[in-house]
UniProtKB/TrEMBL annotation:
<dbReference type="InterPro" id="IPR011990">
    <property type="entry name" value="TPR-like_helical_dom_sf"/>
</dbReference>
<feature type="domain" description="J">
    <location>
        <begin position="14"/>
        <end position="93"/>
    </location>
</feature>
<dbReference type="Pfam" id="PF00226">
    <property type="entry name" value="DnaJ"/>
</dbReference>
<dbReference type="InterPro" id="IPR036869">
    <property type="entry name" value="J_dom_sf"/>
</dbReference>
<dbReference type="InterPro" id="IPR019734">
    <property type="entry name" value="TPR_rpt"/>
</dbReference>
<protein>
    <submittedName>
        <fullName>DnaJ domain-containing protein</fullName>
    </submittedName>
</protein>
<feature type="region of interest" description="Disordered">
    <location>
        <begin position="163"/>
        <end position="187"/>
    </location>
</feature>
<feature type="region of interest" description="Disordered">
    <location>
        <begin position="274"/>
        <end position="299"/>
    </location>
</feature>
<dbReference type="InterPro" id="IPR001623">
    <property type="entry name" value="DnaJ_domain"/>
</dbReference>
Length: 299
């Protein structure tokens, strides 16, 4: 089973691409995805398929999927593999010609690194959903995901200079002087990555995982107003009003004009006014604070 695309071209087995997982995946995510794939590749799932398709499914499981799980499913081998992946990212810096992208998705990601984590996760999820649906396309999709991973690494490690780009004029000295220092840019990029992943979970209405993502962000960046405000938003959507208020308060302490926090505060205030009016009126079936806060459907 030869794959000659993306990170595979750098003499590394892209286990993340095999499982259709992001390069930031943790062991719990790995196990969940592994179980999904094994169900798809199980012989019972291909009872009406041809013998060649059954054989291919069996080979994919034994030669690619199982080894990927053995590597990424435990902390120590995962850490070692991630170090190797980072080294390959550095190799892309020294040998930009090795970043040969043919996939439209990878090319698009490499061409526009704005909102990098969100775009990467969005495209990756689309590819991984189709990854093992048609056996004849499985290897090609693994290759496309590996190209996406290579492009993501290049952008993440500030390797955009290794990719063709139009010439730019020198920035005025005043603009250069006002540019944020590298440490601050890295800090902002990390926070953006957490928030974009939380948005993905919010879109899928998986509020618990979105909350977990932002709690990890706050553990690393405890004074980030955007992380606190977005966490307050997800807590509200999950029906946890008390926790929402706690993180709303924290966000406003760090940035009184944070747009999400300001919006949530106004909704709280409006809801409190409605509750005060309702308390003086006969009770109505189905009324409630959280019902109207985010426009929930009436029962």
């Amino acid at each position: 089973m030869n794959i000659d695309q993306g990170l595979f071209k750098l003499e590394i087995i892209d286990h993340h691409a095999v499982l259709g997982l992001p390069l930031t995946a943790q062991p719990k995510q790995v196990r969940k995805r592994y179980l999904e794939i094994t169900r798809k590749l199980h012989p019972d799932s291909w009872s009406g398929a041809s013998e060649s398709q059954k054989q291919q499914a069996s080979e994919l499981l034994s030669k690619l999927v199982n080894p990927a799980y053995e590597t990424l499913g435990k902390e120590k081998p995962l850490t070692e593999h991630n170090i190797l992946v980072r080294m390959k990212g550095q190799q892309l810096s020294c040998q930009p010609a090795s970043l040969l992208l043919t996939s439209p998705a990878a090319k698009a990601l490499a061409a526009d690194s704005s909102n990098l984590d969100y775009n990467y996760m969005t495209v990756l999820q689309k590819l991984s959903k189709r990854q093992y649906e048609i056996m004849e396309q499985a290897l090609e999709l693994i290759g496309q995901i590996s190209q996406l991973n290579a492009a993501y690494l290049a952008c993440k490690d500030n390797l955009e200079s290794a990719l063709p780009k139009p010439p730019t004029t020198a920035e005025p000295e005043a603009e250069q002087a006002s540019a944020p220092p590298p440490q601050r840019r890295h800090h902002e990029t990390m926070i953006e990555g957490y928030i974009n992943r939380a948005k993905e979970f919010e879109y899928k209405r998986d509020f618990d995982r979105g909350i977990l993502e932002l709690r990890q962000a706050i553990a690393a960046h405890p004074q980030s107003a955007p992380c606190h405000s977005y966490l307050a938003k997800l807590y509200l959507k999950a029906g946890q009003e008390t926790m929402a208020k706690i993180h709303l308060k924290r966000s406003l302490e760090f940035n009184a004009s944070d747009p999400i926090a300001t919006e949530i505060r106004e909704r709280f205030q409006a809801a409190e006014k409605r509750a005060a009016r309702v308390s003086t009126e006969p009770s109505k079936k189905g009324s409630g604070f959280l019902n109207g806060l985010f426009g929930g459907k009436k029962q």
